[in-house]
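[step 3/7] fold_predict: job queued, chain A
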Amino acid sequence: MRAYLGLGSNLGDRAYYLEEAISALMSPTIKIVNTSRIYETEPWGVMDQPLYWNQVIEVETTLEPVDLLHACQEIELRLGRERKLHWGPRTIDIDLLLYDNRVSESEELTLPHPYLEDRAFVLAPLREISPKLVLPSGRSITDVSGEGKVHPLI
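[step 4/7] structure written:
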């Protein structure tokens, strides 16, 4: 199955955390297909924090959505992610944005990501690596811009 993951970091060596997360995701059950450039973005929610570095990766996986979510959460923990403040600063964040265009909602996981179409910091890199993508809402990725300023770094 094809999935898109949003990565973000705004504490410490942001490049290191993004690279380490991508390396840790590579496994027999997860294959990296495509990686966007890194974008510097303003925080979302809690504004008084450092700027983020964000990127999106496309993966092929044999994991079911909730198992992919758990794999991402384990990597976050290994890389020092602390969940002290909702939308607060973090070493690494790995969000499951889309999973094979599935739409579902459970206590643990909502697909697509509930804020996907609102956040420019995931839409810009997602548009970069999959410009013909049609979102589960039926909207083309090129028709959705989201909120916030994004600046490509690399």
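[step 5/7] annotate
DSSP finds three helices and eight strands in the chain.
The first helix runs from residue 14 to 25.
exit 0
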